[in-house]
Amino acid sequence: MPDPAFAAEADVIVVGAGLAGLVATHELVKAGRKVHVLDQENRNNLGGQAFWSLGGLFMVDTPEQRRLGIKDSYELALQDWLGSAGFDRDDEDLWGRRWAEAYVRFATTEKRDYLHELGLRVTPLISWAERGGTFADGHGNSVPRFHLTWGTGPEVVRVFAEPVLEGERKGLVSFGFRHRVDELIVEDDAVVGVRGSVLEETELERGKASSRNVVGEFEFRAKAVIVTSGGIGHNHELIRRNWPTERLGKCPETMISGVPAHVDGRMLAITEAAGGAIVNRDRMWHYTEGINNWSPIWPDHGIRIIPGPSSLWFDANGKRLPAPCFPGFDTISTMKEILATGYDYSWFVLTQSIIEKEFALSGSEQNPDITGKDLKFTLKSRLAHGAPGPVEAFKQHGVDFVVADNLRELVAGMNKIARGPQLDYDALERQIVARDRDVANKYSKDSQLMAITNARQFLGDKVSRVAKPHRILDPKAGPLIAVRLNILTRKTLGGLQTNLDSQVMRPDGTAFPGLYAAGEVAGFGGGGVHGYNALEGTFLGGCIFSGRAAGKALGARLP
């Protein structure tokens, strides 16, 4: 339980003990401020959703990139960001666009040093995530920018949690776990505190869905409140309510959850009721490569396959997806193609050779070698023959996987787990054989094969990420594998509109005194720094940048 005396003296209340909340608290502690941090979960969940992440960080023109021969710049990165964001709303995108320019500048200049000073390190191989569409000024990363944290999500959390916990020992930070905020207190047109419910104590492990039984009430006041409560990723009802049907198609009937149950979006409505502005409600970032976790931690627990570019992608009817709907290229375009069929799933068809080199699973728990910062284990698992252990476990136990020695058996297995039409063997074979004939030469008219050839020009992809082109039906590359891909809920791209100090705006365009927001609840900055699309590695970074802005602004501004 929090110390009532401390709570009464707190300069700032932070609502949410996830990454953005930790970053904001860290900056406030550096400024000598007293901070009271509230969270509806227990202490085991410190760091929130970020703990479960792969730890990817979007950074620009880094030493790691330059060592691999990548020529990157602020201008190129901003071109990619704006081409992907597609900002087209004068009022709702006003601050999002400003945040985008500021964030890309941060990612080019201060971000790496800021994190390095805290002790965070990245692996030497840079990944090329969200490669995008077909034009240089359109969606996607022109070059690899996905820097993988050595230690994945837990390490990103650690470098901010440790100084915050030190602040707790020094009497500058107090935590109120199992304290659910239900109301922002507004007096004289300013936010001056919070009210809410105390939930019953629990010792549940991190990520487990916890009780919502109320055992008490609370009210705390401070000079300012920072809302860092996360998005709506596990609130399927709210996702359905905000789903952009006209833009993406009908909301999927079946969705699996890439985030824990506590990612419920409650504070959005609570902050709006107090007078804060919410913008871009219809912008969200869900993945098309979701698979059911065979060993779940939270309800409807799904994992995303982070694929290399070689798997053949078919819709529910068995039709190969067109460019740029290749694995790892254009998430939103692929989502539209999949949902346009009237079904909410699709298929990868690949070989053992492809899965061994190209399948990675998103999540700290799915990458124990890198998460544990075990170099010997990492080298052994990544260079050994066969798929990485966690991938092989999904292949053996996952309900979405089919393995067969020939295509006819594979199609029969796919039809057993299909939620929609039965696939036609002859039609699938014809498409695969046509693609396989084009592998005979180093050049091709097949757009996906062109993309694979291009990817292998990058050393990082050729060495560790992209399989050598081969015929899918070549027995030497087998067995054949099919994966049923589900829609995986994940990120909220819209949210509370904020200025560059992370101060929440009101619907009339003025700043709301005493109220700040950071992280996913604020669309990672400005109510939608990503616009319609994300470039990957930008979610943790958005939490860091917006949390840092809130903490710095209040640290300098408060009397």
Automatic annotation (TrEMBL):
<feature type="domain" description="FAD-dependent oxidoreductase 2 FAD-binding">
    <location>
        <begin position="11"/>
        <end position="540"/>
    </location>
</feature>
<keyword id="KW-0285">Flavoprotein</keyword>
<keyword id="KW-0560">Oxidoreductase</keyword>
<dbReference type="GO" id="GO:0033765">
    <property type="term" value="F:steroid dehydrogenase activity, acting on the CH-CH group of donors"/>
</dbReference>
<dbReference type="InterPro" id="IPR014614">
    <property type="entry name" value="KsdD_DH"/>
</dbReference>
<dbReference type="InterPro" id="IPR036188">
    <property type="entry name" value="FAD/NAD-bd_sf"/>
</dbReference>
<dbReference type="InterPro" id="IPR003953">
    <property type="entry name" value="FAD-dep_OxRdtase_2_FAD-bd"/>
</dbReference>
<dbReference type="Pfam" id="PF00890">
    <property type="entry name" value="FAD_binding_2"/>
</dbReference>
<dbReference type="InterPro" id="IPR027477">
    <property type="entry name" value="Succ_DH/fumarate_Rdtase_cat_sf"/>
</dbReference>
<protein>
    <recommendedName>
        <fullName>FAD-dependent oxidoreductase 2 FAD-binding domain-containing protein</fullName>
    </recommendedName>
</protein>
